[in-house]
Design brief:
Number of strands: 7
Number of domains: 1
CATH architecture: Alpha-Beta Complex
Helix content: 25-40%
Strand order of the largest sheet: 2-3-4-5-6
Mean pLDDT: 95
CATH class: Alpha Beta
Largest sheet: 5 strands, antiparallel
CATH superfamily: Peptide deformylase
Number of helices: 4
């Protein structure tokens, strides 16, 4: 089932996600719904807070990068098959030079900005079968994981951009939070009540 994606302005996007266990209600169904939602919105990742659940769960599917002619054959092959579920993830180490990439977010439609992130991460997580993994990931796959990991920490990519840039996009962000944005996927807007 395709779920609405929570828009910028909803407090759930700022909450620290809580760990879950293998008995979390309807976990398999939730993961499948998240995959369907992400594919429908043409995303490369989706975190549980983006569908209204403040839990430490996100999915990544970088297959869209597998078509990028600017990448090497090896990178295209790797990214073309990189599809994973991350439960209770913890980034243990970030290393390497910081590099810039223009990021966007399904919860913040119509805005993309350059974000600097380190090139390599070591992370620990459980997969959908609750098998534990410790992996080293680099390049674009690491960047997508870092972006989604930030979501379960209550951090958005716009928190990592320059102050001047934030001021320049302030009105766009306000419009998103008010629902004044067009997308080709379902969104849910948080409209705070003024007293």
């Amino acid at each position: 089932m395709i779920l609405p994606i929570i828009a910028y302005g909803d407090p759930v996007l700022r909450k620290m996600g809580v760990d879950i266990d293998k008995d979390f209600p309807n976990l398999g169904e939730l993961i499948e719904n998240m995959k369907e939602t992400m594919i429908n919105a043409r995303g490369v990742g989706l975190a549980a807070p983006q569908i209204g659940q403040a839990i430490r769960l996100f999915i990544v599917d970088t297959s869209a990068f597998g078509e990028d002619d600017d990448l090497s054959d090896k990178e295209r092959e790797y990214l073309g098959s990189f599809k994973k579920v991350f439960i209770n993830a913890k980034i243990l180490k970030e290393e390497g030079d910081e590099w810039v990439f223009n990021e966007g977010c399904l919860s913040i439609p119509g805005i993309t900005e350059d974000v600097f992130r380190q090139e390599k991460i070591t992370l620990e997580y459980f997969d959908e079968n609750f098998e534990k993994h410790i992996e080293v990931v680099d390049g674009l796959a690491a960047r997508v994981i870092q972006h989604e990991y930030d979501h379960i920490e209550g951090v958005l990519f716009i928190d990592k951009i320059a102050s001047l840039t934030k001021r320049l996009i302030k009105k766009k962000l306000e419009n998103i939070s008010k629902g004044l944005v067009n997308t080709d996927y379902k969104m849910k807007f948080y409209l705070s009540k003024k007293k």
